[in-house]
Amino acid sequence: MADERTRVEIALRNLTKARLLTMQVPGFAVGRWCDAWEAEAARRGLEPSAASWEDGIRWIVAKVAAGEQPPD
Question: What DSSP character marks residue 66?
Fold first, then answer.
């Protein structure tokens, strides 16, 4: 069960990265933004899921639109 859960979480992150690229988020920053979202989601107490990654996409796109840079 843990392996399947890990695979699903990896797949969701990869899908999110691909979607962010189509939304003009710079490729060099996509992974860092996903890391930042995972930290933010943990602070919010969210479990990795399709719904939480949808929230993450909105959060990341808003940050990028505001001219913010991803954390190092």
Answer: T
Report CA-CA distances (Å) from 46 to 26, 55, 62: 26, 10, 19
State both tokens at 26.
Answer: 């710079």
**CA-to-CA separations, 2 to 5, 6, 8, 9, in angstroms, rounded:** 5, 6, 10, 10
Report the alpha-carbon distance of residue 71 to residue 56 in Å, rounded.
Answer: 15
pTM: 0.90
User: What span, in angstroms and rounded, lies between the C-alpha atoms of 54 and 59?
Assistant: 9
From CA 11, how far away is CA 2, in angstroms rounded?
14
Q: What is the pLDDT of residues 1-29, one digit of tens each?
A: 679 889 999 999 999 999 999 999 999 99
